[in-house]
Each structure stands twice: as structure tokens, then as C-alpha cells.
Amino acid sequence: MATDTARTTEIDVAALTADEAAKEHARLGEEIAGHDKRYYQDDAPTVSDAEYDALRRRYEAIEDAFPELKGMDSLSEKVGAAPSSKFAKIRHAVPMLSLGNAFAAEEVEEFVARIRRFLGLATDAEVAMTAEPKIDGLSCSLRYEEGRLIVAATRGDGFEGEDVTQNVRTISEVPQHLKAKDVPAVFEVRGEVYMGHTDFAAINERQKEAGKPLFANPRNAAAGSLRQLDPKITASRPLRFFAYAWGEVSEGGLPADTQSGVITAFNRWGLPTNPLTVVCRTAEELLAHYHSIEEQRASLGYDIDGVVYKVDSLALQRRLGFVSRSPRWALAHKFPAQRAITQLERIEIQVGRTGALTPVAKLTPITVGGVVVSNASLHNEDYIKGIGGGGEPIRGGIDIREGDWVTIQRAGDVIPQVVGVELERRPADAKPYEFPTLCPVCHSHAVREDGEVVRRCTGGLICAAQAVERIRHFVSRDAFDIEGLGEKQVQAFYEWGLVKQPADIFTLAARDADPAALTRLKNRDGWGETSARNLFAAIEVRRQVPVNRFLYALGIRHVGETNAKRLLRHYGTIEALREAALNAVPPGEEHPKGNEAWAEMVATEGIGAVVAEAVVDFFAEPNNEAAVDALLKEVTPEPLEVVAASGAVAGKTVVFTGALEKMTRDEAKAMAERLGAKVAGSVSKKTDYVVAGADAGSKLAKARELGVAVLSEDEWLELAGAG
Ligand code: IVH
Question: Do 121 and 204 share a domain, yes or no?
Fold first, then answer.
């Protein structure tokens, strides 16, 4: 997110303590790995290249300042993300590395100066370099043996990629044979697979007609097409190729001793190369070519995101070598993000499948870099207020209001962002934006947890935006486990209006049998007499369900299977839990530490404030209460499920003796039984534990005599709590 970028670029690395640096290094590492996965494996990036680069630079700067953080797992040594598992893996004979990045002209000058210094050349010595467009596609390695295309692989993590040979064979621009006398026995050609603008538009048109999701940009369309399991689909997507580098080459096989010479040979061999490749002698010439390419960018017919400079002499390239993941002899000079100013007409709140409320800026449409933009991301409530991810101000702390003139940025091709506000043009009547506290879809309360930036709808059980996801969870294996109700069926039932909330599942059969029913289930698409009957039977047997499954099925945030059991071990029933939740008042002005009911909930074994708050929020929403009531009319929760193998006391025989302090004898017995233990009245050889309170008498003596383990009340509670 842009907020993260803002945070990471604003604190000076030099000012970080070792501890802060380690934390941030780990945080950035995780964030970058996430972006890598979304970019390389899912073909669905969520940040712009510029933002990604900023994160990466920050990460590397921290490693430079704190070299001890450079562990084996350091991301700086990796490129991209590990290949996904659906294709066979190909290990690259020569790793496919990445390029260092620059944005400013000074960085290009410094790049040239650094090369001169490294090579011990005079400060005004000319170093010939190639300059060529940086194609925004995905890199691919094509292995030719005896001139024949043998294997094609994606970059993957730089060391191991995916075998996409069959798909690459469908690309007409990639020759199956290299026909020339000087083609070496082994030659790996490297270059970029990409999709042109016209083809991209046509593909998206086709996707739209077929009701399929659109590709965000040509790069994603190219990646999605190349990584198709069915080569026929790839063949129907017009992919193209530019060759610009190489991997393994048999001994003495290079056709030239310069970069530009090899590119010329590529051309001769029938490989497509980029016509805008030139040789320059100085940084000024590189920059002039950069600007010339930038001017032609919109009319090239394919996406490029910068210009790549490479030292021309291969001998010098070898001397310069590599630094971590990129060659010292090459640089990617990126184009700046594209920006424009337009009016923000209104802020719309979208509700995601998990209930997250996401603000979107509805803009007066404007063209940015040839693309019409009418929506932009506003990330979250704090972002609108001008507060970044770390709580520090962003955009100078200026908030975003409906009616404002805003700067939007398209960088890479992800969703445009609102990055600035023209304060002097702010309409006099513009009011600070009030983020809704009710879900715009179902009008349930939308709450923000402590430390969270996202506000979420709490009405998951009835909210149309979340319903399918929630019902799917409700019927899933560890919840109600209703056979025959998978994701597809849940989706269809929702669309048919048959199941809008969990309780509807249990009234389905009766409604279906009603003579007034318009269409019987057995007559609907995908259903028949038997499958309908089986489904109704599968639903029927779940009218009794262990209470922990009932609670888990409700999908309360942070209440997974374990917490559901923990809560019910303490409260016993849904009603008792609900009562406690309705009475509980979390810490606030009235009760600085929360009231008694709250204190009891957070004192429950394994339950902390985050879980307790989620439970309180859930039951505070009348829509949820109604949905639970409706469900309780249909379903009878049964005692807590005990898995015999789990829990330290499950299956054990326990005898309580003496006066217990923390609970009554009945309570102790009920608790032990809930945990799967057997409670006996007298001590024998079969007794596993004797829990002895004050003034224990003969039973304690008997336990000692038989060598049975004796526990104090506290020891017992600890043992039981661990279960
Ligand atoms: S040269 C060892 N040249 O940019 C250097 N890369 O950020 C090999 N790319 O992985 C790469 N156009 O996917 C090179 N003209 C070009 C390029 C180019 C696009 C991509 C390539 C590479 C990435 C590095």
C-alpha cells in the first residue's frame, strides 16, 4: 500500500536502532515476499512498481546499514517468487537475475561514474553502453540446442522457473529453429514475453463477453496467458517476444564481444530484438536516448516502464560482475509515475467478502498516460484523514474531502492512487469526510479493532457482500459440515434467493415441499431427485451439533475452532456466552479496565482482549442476534465436543477430595467432564489424578498408598487449561 511506502521512506535508516532495524527488516521482508507472490505467481500485483521499488530499496538500505540482518533468507539475494506448483520446474543453468533501478538523472550519472571507478578509468573516460526500452512483460529463457528450441522457462525465483515450453512454442515470433552458421551448440536466449496494446484490448473484450474477469494490464494478460496449463489457450492469446540477453552458451560460442554485437547476431538468427536499441558513449547520450524513448512511449503499441543501460563490452561486463541480485554493468532507468489532477466527486465505500470497508474515490474521468481513470484507491479511513500506516502524517497531514481537487498517480499499472490534495482549490463548503460506522450494504455496525486500519462490517451473517463467504464457512467441514453444500451450491442458493442466512438452510426442505414453491430444488440446474433428497437428509442430521461447532460456524472474527472451545469451556452455552457479551463493557471512559463481565471474559483461559472485543462486537449487532435466534429455532447445540486425543486430561479418571477454593465440587466435576475426563468417587489403581483441596482425608491417604498422582487445585486447573 502507498501508506506503507510513505512510512518506509520517511524514517531515516541511519536513525534506526538495531532493534528497530531488525523489526522493520522483518516486516519489509514479509511485505515484499507478499508482493512478489502476488506479482510473480498470482499475476495480480497490488502495488505499483515504484512503490515496490521503494520498499525494496529501503530493505536493502537497512541491510547495508545493519549487515548482520543479511541472513540466509535475505530477500536481497532472491529475485521474484518461487515458481508455483502447477508447472514442472526448470533449474536455470545461469541464474536469471534482476536489474538495479534508478529514477533520477543523477543516479544515472552516478552509475556511469561508479563503473569508471570500479574499472580504474579516468573520470572522463568513455564507456560505451547500450540503451534500450525496458519491456513490461515477463522474462523467459529459451534454450536452443543445435539450433532447436528445447526448453522454455519463466524466471521463477531467478534460480528455478517453470517449464512453459509448450506454451512458448505457440508464440509465432519465437523461432523453433535458429538458422545461421554461427549458432552455438547450446545457446540460451533470454528476453521478454509481452502483449501489445491492441491485442490486450481485444483479449479483454473477449473476457468481458464471456463474463470472465478482465486483466488489469498487458503484463498480467501476458503472464496469465503464458502460464496457462492448456497451450491451446496460450495459442489463442497473441503473445510477442523481444530478445535482449542470454544465459548458458557453449564454450567460445558467443557471436560477438559486445552486447550490441550479440543483439545484431540475434537479429540475424531470426530472433526479434528491439529497434530502439542504440549504443551511447556518455551519461548525456544515455539520458538523451531515455527522453527520446519516453516521448515515443505512448505510440509504441506495447508497455515499457523505463530504459535499460548495459555496458557494451562483454569483457568489461565480466570484470564488473554482479552485486547480490543484479549486474554491476546494467541499470534500469525507470519512468516516473504518471500523475494528473482531477476532482474527487464522491467517496464510495465498497464492502469486501470479508466485510472490510474500502473507500474508493469516484473521480471526474481524466486521462493519465493514455488511460482514462475514474476510480482511485483511498486505502482506508486513516489514509483519507492523512495518517499513514505507522500513525505519522502523510501528504503533510492533509485530509481528503469530497469535492477536493486531487493528484492521482498511475504507477506501473495497478489501481491509481490519490496521492495529493490541492488545498488552495478546496471548495469552501467541503467537509471532513466522515467514514461510515454502519455497513453501506446491510447497515450493521462497522467496527475497527484496536491497532487495525480496516473497519469491518460485523453483520457477516446477513450482509449481502459477505453472505456467500459466510454461509460457505458455516457449512464447511469443521463447522456444520453439511455434505453436498459446497461453494458452488452455496453461491447458487444465494442467487436463487433460497439461502440468504444460515437459518435458511434448515428451512429449505420445508419450503421446497410447500406446494406453493415455484421451482422445486430437484428441477433446478445441477440438481435432481436423488441429490436434492440427499442434501435434505444431510441437513437434517445437523439439527444437533456440538456447541463449539455452532459457535465456530458463526464466523465471529478471531473465533476459530480453538477459541470457540475455550469460550464454551468457560460459558458452557451460546446463551450464556451471548449474555456475557451483551453485559461486557470493554475498557473505556466509564470502566477504565472494562466492567466485571468484560474482566471475566478476558480472564477466560486463552482469551484476550482482541477475541473478547470481537465477541462483544458480534453480539452487539442486533442483526446477528436475530440471525442466531433464527438458527437456534432450527438447531439444538449439544455439549462441547471433546476430542479424546487432545487435552491433557481427556480420557483420564479424576477424584476430587477436600475443600476446593476456586470452584464448587459440582463445577469441578462439570469442567472435568467437559474436557473428557471421568470423575470417580473413590480412589483405585485406575485413578489417574487425585485433586486434593484443604483438609483432604482418607482419599488422599489412599492415593499416596497406591502411588496415584496428587494435584493441588491450581495444578489441576493448569493441567486442564492446557487441554
Ligand atoms: S536485461 C542480467 N533488458 O527487467 C540482466 N531486462 O528488472 C538481464 N526487462 O528480469 C536483464 N526489458 O524481465 C533486460 N531490455 C531489457 C529488459 C529487461 C525488460 C526485465 C526483465 C528483467 C527485469 C529486471
Answer: yes
Q: Which residue has the higher pLDDT, 538 or 337?
A: 538
How many domains does the structure of the chain reveal?
5
* 252 lies in the same domain as 364: no
Q: Is the CB of 308 inside a 6 Å radius of any atom of ligand 1?
A: yes
Atom 13 of ligand 1, nearest CA residue: 139
Task: Looking at the CA of residue 134, tell me the nearest atom of ligand 1.
Answer: 12
For residue 331 and ligand 1, the question of a CB distance below 6 A is answered with no
12 band by pLDDT with thresholds 50, 70 and 90: confident
Mutate to test the pocket of ligand 1, among 49, 130, 139 (most ligand atoms within 8 A of CB): 139
Tell me which residue range forms the domain holding 703. Answer: 653-719
Pairing of strands 371-377, 338-351: unpaired
134 is catalytic: yes
Percent of residues, the chain, with pLDDT higher than 70: 92
How far out from the chain centre does Cα 142 lie?
Answer: 31
- pLDDT given at position 723: 35
Per-residue model confidence as pLDDT tens digits over 77-134: 444 555 555 789 999 999 998 999 999 999 999 999 999 999 999 999 999 999 999 9
Burial class of residue 353 (count of CB atoms within 10 Å of its CB; 0-12, 13-18, 19+): middle
Rounded distance between C-alpha atoms, residue 502 and residue 31, angstroms: 36
Shared domain check, 458 and 387: no
* pLDDT-derived band at 270, boundaries 50, 70, 90: very high
The answer as to whether 202 is a domain residue is: yes
Ligand 1 pocket, mutate which of 308, 328, 333 (most atoms under 8 A from CB) = 308
Whether 621 is in the pocket of ligand 1, judged by its Cβ within 6 Å, is no
Q: What is the mean pLDDT of residues 50-54?
A: 72
Instruction: Say whether both 112 and 251 belong to one domain.
Output: yes
Distance CA 7, CA 11 (A): 7
How many secondary structure helices (H) and strands (E) does the chain include?
25, 26
User: Is the domain of 238 the same as that of 167?
Assistant: yes
